[in-house]
From TrEMBL:
Gene3D superfamilies: 3.40.50.12580. One of its GO terms (molecular function) is CDP-glycerol glycerophosphotransferase activity. The chain crosses the membrane at residues 12-29. This is Glycosyl/glycerophosphate transferase, teichoic acid biosynthesis. Pfam families: Glyphos_transf. InterPro entries: Glycerophosphate_synth, TagF_C. One of its GO terms (cellular component) is membrane. Keywords: Membrane, Transferase, Transmembrane, Transmembrane helix.
Length: 408
C-alpha cells in the first residue's frame, strides 16, 4: 500500500491553489450567467443577489471580541445592517443581542477561509493579516477590504506581507503610517488608505476599568505576563526568575500566553509542580486579562504587546526582558529603521537582565518609584493611542462614507 505524505506547508499551498482556481471559475461562471439572463430578458434589470452583504466583519477568534464590539455598537447605533462572521463557536457576540447585526459561526481554518473566499460583500473588515498571501484570498465578490489593528505597536509587527493587499488599514496612531509607506514603495504595491482611528479594544477595556474598585486588603502584586516560545520568559528563564520572585514575599501572578498551553505544555507543568505549595504564587488562565492587570502593581514581560495595554490603561510601570527578537520573518525586518516599540521600551520601562534576578525585590521597588518613567509613559500613550474613546465611531464614519463613495 502506497502512502503519500504531504507536509503542512505543501498542503496549505495546494489548498491555496485549488481554492483560487475554484473561486475564479465560480465568479466567471456567475458573470456569464448574469450576461445570459440579461440577454434573454432583453436587457432588463437582473434580480439582485440576496447573498450579498453591505458590510461583513470577520473575527477569527473570540479574543478579538474587544476589537470588534465598539465597531458593532457604532453600527447598531446608526441602524446600519452588518453581517458578523466568526470562527469562534462560543464568540461573545452570541450573548450580546443586536437588532441590526446578524452573526454566524463559519467554522475554523480552511472551512472558514473557503466561506470567505466565496464571499460577496461591499466591504469586509477583519483583524486577520495575510490577505491574498496564503489560504485567505481576496474574493472577487468583495469590493473593499479593510483591516483593523489589534495592537498599538508597529503596524509592521505582522508576518511578512501581512497588510500588503488590503485596501485600507485602521491605525491607532499616526506614527504607524511611515513604515507601511516604506514597504509599499519597496514592494511596488498599491498604496492603501491609512486612517488613524485610535484603538477599539483599549477603548473597551478602559470602559471596563471604570467599574473596578480597589481591594482594601490589597497586597503588593507582581504580574508575570510573557509571550510564548523559546524566547519567552517562562521557557528562557523559568525557575531562575520565579524563585527569586517568590522569595520577595510579594504576591505573584503568572499569566501564560494562551498559545503556551499547547506550545509550552511541558514547561508549564514543570513550573506548576515546582510552585504548587507556594502560597504567594498563582497561575491565571482567564480569557479576559483586564481584571488581572488591574490587580497588579507592576508587570514583568518580554516582547508581548500586553506591556502597552498595561502601561497605557493603568499608567503602571513594567520590566521587560530583552529577548533578542528575530524580526526576519516579520514585515519590520524589511525596514532598516528600528521599530517604534523597541525604541520606546527603554524610555517607558526598565530592562530586566538575568544578573539582576538576585536583587529583583529592589529592582521592582525602584521601578515603581521612578517618576521619569511615569512622564514618558504619558507621552508614548499620546503617540500610540489617539482619539481615545472614539475609535468605533471613527471606523464606522469611514466605512459608511467609503460605501457611498464606491457607489454601492
Amino acid at each position: 500500500m502506497l502512502l503519500l505524505y504531504i507536509d503542512p506547508g505543501t498542503g496549505s499551498m495546494l489548498f491555496s491553489i485549488i481554492i483560487g482556481l475554484v473561486t475564479m471559475l465560480y465568479f466567471v461562471a456567475k458573470a456569464a450567467l448574469i450576461k445570459v439572463k440579461f440577454f434573454l430578458t432583453g436587457g432588463k434589470a437582473v434580480a439582485s443577489n440576496k447573498n450579498r452583504y453591505p458590510f461583513v466583519i470577520y473575527s477569527e477568534s473570540e479574543r478579538y471580541w474587544s476589537v470588534f464590539k465598539p465597531i458593532l455598537d457604532a453600527f447598531e447605533k446608526r441602524q446600519i445592517s452588518v453581517m458578523y462572521f466568526t470562527s469562534a463557536e462560543k464568540d461573545p457576540f452570541f450573548s450580546n443581542p443586536y437588532s441590526y447585526i446578524n452573526g454566524e459561526f463559519i467554522g475554523e481554518g480552511n472551512k472558514a477561509f473557503t466561506r470567505l473566499n466565496f464571499l460577496e460583500a461591499d466591504i469586509c473588515l477583519m483583524t486577520t493579516p495575510g490577505l491574498d498571501v496564503y489560504q485567505l484570498k481576496r474574493s472577487r465578490g468583495v469590493k473593499h477590504y479593510a483591516h483593523v489593528l489589534h495592537s498599538v505597536a508597529d503596524a509592521t509587527s505582522y508576518r511578512l506581507f501581512g497588510l500588503d493587499y488590503f485596501d485600507s488599514v485602521f491605525l491607532s496612531g499616526t506614527y504607524q503610517e511611515a513604515h507601511i509607506r516604506i514597504l509599499e514603495e519597496q514592494r511596488g504595491i498599491a498604496k492603501k488608505e491609512l486612517v488613524v482611528v485610535g484603538c477599539t479594544y483599549l477603548d473597551m477595556l478602559n470602559q471596563q476599568l471604570s467599574t473596578f474598585e480597589p481591594d482594601e486588603n490589597h497586597l503588593f502584586t507582581v504580574l508575570v505576563a510573557p509571550s510564548w516560545g523559546s524566547n519567552g520568559i517562562l521557557s528562557k528563564y523559568g525557575e531562575r526568575l520565579l524563585d527569586p520572585l517568590v522569595e520577595t514575599g510579594f504576591q505573584i501572578i503568572v499569566r501564560p500566553h494562551p498559545q503556551s498551553i499547547q506550545s509550552e505544555k511541558a514547561v508549564l507543568e514543570r513550573l506548576q509542580r515546582r510552585y504548587a505549595s507556594s502560597s504567594n504564587l498563582e497561575w491565571n488562565y482567564s480569557r479576559e486579562n483586564i481584571g488581572t492587570l488591574f490587580r497588579s502593581d507592576i508587570m514583568i514581560s518580554d516582547f508581548s504587546g500586553v506591556i502597552f495595554d498595561y502601561s497605557f490603561l493603568l499608567d503602571r510601570p513594567f520590566l521587560y526582558v530583552n529577548a533578542n527578537f528575530d524580526d526576519r520573518p516579520y514585515d519590520g525586518g524589511s525596514i532598516d529603521e528600528e521599530p517604534w516599540k523597541f525604541k520606546i521600551l527603554p524610555e517607558i520601562g526598565v530592562e530586566l537582565i538575568e544578573s539582576s534576578f538576585p536583587t529583583i525585590k529592589e529592582v521592582l521597588l525602584d521601578t515603581v518609584q521612578n517618576e521619569t518613567l511615569t512622564k514618558n509613559r504619558l507621552q508614548a500613550k499620546e503617540t500610540a493611542w489617539q482619539f481615545r474613546g472614539h475609535s468605533g465611531e471613527k471606523i464606522v464614519d469611514y466605512l459608511a462614507a467609503k460605501q457611498k463613495e464606491l457607489g454601492l
